[in-house]
Write a structure and sequence with these properties.
- With 612 residues, this protein is an alpha+beta fold.
- It folds into two domains: 257 residues, Beta-galactosidase, Chain A, domain 5; 224 residues, no CATH class.
- The protein has 14 helices and 20 strands.
- Strand 3 and strand 4 form a beta hairpin.
């Protein structure tokens, strides 16, 4: 650093030091500044104090207003039940864990202890505030909704185990001698919960106290893997006092009012579990609503029922709840025809499943086999029962196959321009040969109701739930070999291996069946369309159902192989030639042939009139 630079820096330091010294405020100025800062702080504190005082005043006003509203409400009937703290009380036995809420005195949640959801979580039928149970009534100038009022329990934390019975009362108090009781009874095991509504000393308080309208609402949780079947099998079922069962909401959102029939019980049914409310004397009027909240993927559907219930002779409203698996024997043992809510099909299908398939299945389950083996045994029994029809169908198709060369000759002579004449010539051939062209179709048509009956039987079969066989971890739902992670039109989000095997076996069966029947031309390709349709339709159905159809195809292959050894085309051809030699008057004319001849004659007469 040179001399000039050093001298410049030294002078700058002197100037800065002199400025600090000479510009320093005096003591009077410092006191004045301190006083000013103190005043500013005081003003700021006053502002904050003023704001706090306003808020406090507002809060106080709000509390006074609330107190005034509460005071007015407290003076109204059941006013003391408006405010309270919700508490949950547990009732538990071997099969159920039920939580009761002091808010509404209702059943808050129901857990079936011996079962799990598809993802191995506790199986809770419903819980939370989306579920309601109570009734509204007029009392003085007030409208009281029990679902919004606070009840007082007779005991808290009560649990029931073993074979003992227990009872708990939830009380909605009007006065020490006037109240409404919800009385719950639970035995040491089983799915029944006794429920009685008892109103004491309120005839002069409650308007129209001889009957009440119960409002029951429930949001059904997703319990099963397959959304399609779970959605289709979740609905409201009802059974009237004339012993007729019906349901709504299986395929679409719906609403229904019933005033001309008394309902004995109403069921909020899911695929494999149900919540049922039973009245011995019946509900005089009923209104049902079922809807789907598409934004809520955790629940399947929302169900509502409004039920009018008359008071019993002893002044009570006796009811029963059943929270049960949809197991046929279990429901049947509970009585009240609860097993009717298991959908076994319509018309003749229901009788086939109820009185034929179900008893045979129950017998097979007594051997304690794996359910995959039971389905195999059931399929073998079915095939043996239907084997006479299968044999007649095969024999008739063999006759038509033998006649096909002669039919082709007739077609070549007559041509396609005159279909009426062509059919007449065919009929003459059938008559001479003693062959019924529908002989192969009729046995198949007779078998169809039984085949379709199984389509309804397996999807609703509770016994298959959670049962594994081979690679199928649960026979009651689909066995996804591929999960796409996105939806593919016609197929869905997955591909079921057993459904794929069933489709392939059906295509093979169709090919061999065309060979047996001698079908040619475009007709032989039509049979290949149905299996492809089934691939999309049954891909989301239980693997147990697809397994049955696969077994049925395999056993049909075996049957046809055995029958083929028994049926000789040369012998059939020889028999047909012998039939042709018989006199016309000695040939037995089938009803089909007679009707066809009559139709042909009528058609010829119509054509003759047109020609004139």
């Amino acid at each position: 650093m040179d001399r000039n630079t050093f001298t410049g820096l030294f002078l700058i330091m002197i100037i800065i030091a002199g400025s600090v010294w000479f510009l320093k405020p005096s003591d009077a100025q410092l006191k004045k500044e301190a006083l000013l800062q103190a005043n500013l702080k005081k003003q700021d504190s006053l502002k904050k104090l003023g704001t706090s005082a306003t808020t406090a005043k507002f809060d106080t006003t709000a509390k006074i207003a609330a107190a005034t509203v509460d005071s007015a409400a407290l003076k109204s009937p059941f006013g003391a039940t408006i405010n309270g703290t919700e508490k949950l009380i547990t009732l538990e036995n071997k099969d159920l864990r039920i939580k009761l809420s002091t808010r509404g005195g209702r059943i808050y949640s129901v857990e079936l202890k011996n079962f799990k959801t598809f993802d191995k979580k506790p199986l809770v039928l419903f819980d939370g505030d989306a579920n309601k149970f109570g009734f509204s009534f007029g009392a003085g100038s007030a409208n009281v909704n029990t679902n919004e009022r606070y009840f007082t329990p007779s005991a808290e934390g009560l649990q029931v185990t073993g074979k003992d019975s227990s009872s708990i009362t939830m009380r909605l108090t009007y006065s020490p001698t006037q109240y409404i009781d919800y009385i719950y009874n639970l035995k040491g095991e089983g799915y029944k919960v006794g429920f009685t509504i008892k109103a004491v000393g309120l005839d002069n308080v409650i308007a129209n106290s001889s009957s009440i309208t119960l409002n029951w609402e429930s949001s059904l949780h997703k319990l099963e893997q397959g959304h399609t079947l779970d959605h289709q099998n979740s609905y409201i079922g009802y059974f009237d006092t004339e012993r007729n069962y019906d349901f709504i909401g299986d395929t679409k959102d719906d609403q229904k009012d019933i005033a001309d029939k008394k309902m004995q019980w109403v069921s909020f049914k899911q695929h494999f579990f149900s919540s049922v409310l039973i009245s011995k004397d019946g509900f005089s009027k009923s209104s049902f609503t079922i809807s789907t909240d598409t934004s809520n993927h955790a629940d399947i559907k929302q169900l509502k029922a409004n039920l009018v219930l008359a008071r019993n002779a002893d002044g009570t409203f006796p009811l029963d709840f059943y929270f049960s698996p949809n197991h046929f024997k279990t429901l049947q043992a509970q009585g009240h025809s609860l097993e009717k809510q298991i959908n076994m099909g319509w018309g003749p299908l229901k009788f086939i499943n109820r009185y034929a398939v179900q008893p045979v299945f129950n017998i097979l389950t007594q051997f304690n086999w794996n359910y995959g083996i039971i389905i195999l045994a059931l399929t073998i029994i079915l095939k043996l029962v239907l084997s006479p029809l299968t044999y007649k169908s095969y024999l008739s198709m063999a006759k038509m196959r033998v006649l096909k060369p002669e039919m082709d000759e007739i077609k070549a002579k007559v041509g396609d321009d005159n279909p009426t004449l062509l059919q007449q010539e065919y009929l003459k051939l059938y008559k001479k040969a003693g062959v019924n062209p529908l002989g192969g179709c009729l046995p198949l048509l007779l078998q169809m109701p039984i085949v379709i009956a199984f389509f309804r039987f397996f999807p609703g079969l509770f016994e298959l739930r959670g049962q594994s066989f081979l690679w199928m971890h649960d026979l009651s739902t689909y066995d996804a070999v591929i999960n796409f992670g996105f939806n593919i039109p016609f197929i869905g989000e997955h591909l079921s291996l057993m459904c794929l095997l069933m489709t392939v076996s059906t295509l093979i069966y169709t090919y061999f069946n065309n060979q047996i029947s001698g079908v040619s031309g475009q007709m032989k390709y039509i049979g290949y369309i149905t299996p492809i349709i089934f691939l999309g339709a049954l891909n989301g159905y239980p693997s147990g159902l697809n397994y049955y159809y696969f077994l049925a195809n395999m056993l049909t292959f075996l049957q046809q192989y055995v029958i083929k050894l028994m049926v000789d085309d040369k012998k059939i051809h020889a028999q047909i030639q012998e039939n042709k030699k018989k006199p016309e008057d000695k040939k037995k004319k089938s009803g089909f042939s007679a009707k066809m001849e009559e139709m042909m004659r009528a058609q010829q007469q119509v054509q003759a009139k047109k020609g004139k």
